[in-house]
Amino acid sequence: MTPGREAVPYLVRMDSRRIDALVAAGALVAIMAGTYANLSWTGADERPLDPVGVTLIVVSSLSLAWRRAAPLAAGLVAVACGIVYYSAHYPGVFAAEPALASIYTLAALGRRKAAIWLAVALAAPVYGLMALAEEDPAAGNGMTLLSGWLVAMVVVGEVVRSRRAYLRAVEQRAEEAERTREEALLRRAGEERLWIAQELHDSLTHSISVVNVQVAVAMELLDRDPGRARQALAAIKESGHEAMNELRSTLGVLRQSVPEGVEAGLAGLPRLVSRAEGAGLRVSYTVTGTPYALPPEVDRAAYRIAQEALTNVLRHAGAASVTLAVGYDPAGIMLRVDNDGEAGTAGPGMGLIGMRERAVAVGGSLIAGPGEEGGFSVRAELPASAWSPVRS
Q: What's the average model confidence in pLDDT over 52-81?
C-alpha cells in the first residue's frame, strides 16, 4: 500500500471539513454581529430578535459545515430557516447568507438544477410575503436585492465550476504527456538493451566459437605437430584481438564515438571468411551482381547475419564445407549461407531469433532450415534502402 496515494484524499477530506466548519462559525458570528448592529433593514414591520430567531440563525449558519459533504440537505435546511425567519419578520438581510452560500456551492459542484430550484424556493416565499404586505417595500429595503444575489450565486458557482474543470483538464493532459514521455523513454531503453545484447551475442559468440575450435586443434596436435599447434594458437590470439575490436566498436557506438578499425558490413566478409577457414571450415565465398553501397543499418545487418550463420556452423553443424553467397540487384541483396553438415541439429535458438530480428528490423526477411540437398541453409533478403516502421 502506497502511503501517499491513500493519505492524500483523506487529508483533503479532513481539510475541507475543517474549512467548512470554520466557514459555518464565521458566518454565525458575522450574521449575529450584523443583525444586532442593525446594519440592514427589511421593512417597517420588523420585530425584535428573540431566542427563536437566534435559533434559526444558528441552525442555518451551522448547516454550512455540511455544505460540501451534503450540499443539497444543507441548502434545504438553510433555505427553510430563511423562509421561517423572514415570515416571522425578524430583522436584517444577513440571515439569507447561509442559503446563498449553499446555492453557490451546489452550482460550483455542477448541480445547476438543484441550485436554481433552491434559489426559486427561497425567492418565491420571500417575494410573496412582500407582495402580500400592507405597505410596498420602502427604499433601502435590503430584501429587494435578494433576486440579484441569488442569480449572482448561481452564475459565480458556474464560473468556478468551469474554471476547476479547465484546470483539471490541463492537469490531466500534463500527466498524460509525462506518462507518454516516460513510456517512450522506457521503450527506447529496452530497444537499446536489445541492440547491445544482439551486438555482443553476434560478435563474441563467433570469436569464442573460433577460439574453442582452435583450442581443440592445439591440444590435439601439441605433441604430434607443434608447428600446426603453434598456428592454432596464433589463430586464437587473432580471434581474441578481433573480439576486443568488436567490443571496442560496440562501446564506441554507445559512447557516440567513431569505432577504430572495425568493419561491421559486407566489406568485412573476406576477413570473416578467413577466420572461419582458420577454424577448419572450407568456405566458398561468391558475389554476384554489381556491388553498391548499402545503408549502414542494412550493411551491418547483412554482416551480422553472415557472422551468426558461420558461428552456428562451427558450433552445431559439424560441417566440412560452407557456401557463402551474396547477390546484388536493384531492389536489394540476397544473402545465402549453406552447409553440408547434419540437417536440423542447430535447432531454433537465440542465434536464429537474432538473425530474423535483424532482417525484419531493416524491412527484410529471413528463412532458416534444412537445405534441399541436406545440411542447413540460411537465406536473407534485405532491401537496398533503409526502412523504418510507420509510427502512429
A: 89
Alpha-carbon gap, residue 326 to 304, rounded angstroms: 13
* H helices present in the chain, as ranges: 3-36, 51-62, 71-87, 97-108, 112-132, 146-221, 226-254, 269-278, 296-312, 350-361
Could you give the CA distance from residue 334 to residue 327 in angstroms, rounded to a whole number?
5
Please provide the DSSP assignment of 308-335 as one string.
HHHHHIIIII--SEEEEEEEEETTEEEE
Question: What is the CA 116 to chain-centroid distance, rounded?
Answer: 42
Check if the beta carbon of residue 337 is closer than 8 Å to that of residue 272.
no
Q: How many other CB atoms sit within 10 Å of the CB of residue 58? A: 15
Total length of the chain:
392
Q: Which domains does the chain have, with CATH numbers?
A: 3-140 (no CATH), 265-392 (3.30.565.10)
Instruction: Please give the residue that has the higher pLDDT: either 304 or 142.
Output: 304
Give the per-residue pLDDT at 276.
Answer: 80
pLDDT category at 374 given cuts 50, 70, 90 is: confident
Distance CA 65, CA 115 (A): 18
**Which of the pair, 281 or 202, is modelled with greater confidence?**
281
Q: Could you tell me whether strands 365-370 and 321-329 are parallel, antiparallel, or unpaired per DSSP bridges?
A: unpaired
Do residues 159 and 112 make contact, with C-beta atoms less than 8 angstroms apart? no
CA 141-143-149 angle, 5° bins: 130
Distances (CA, A) of 176 to 47, 164, 190: 61, 18, 21
Residues β-bridged to residue 335:
326, 380
- ∠ CA 130-132-136 to the nearest 5 degrees? 55
The DSSP bridge partners found for residue 324 are 285, 337
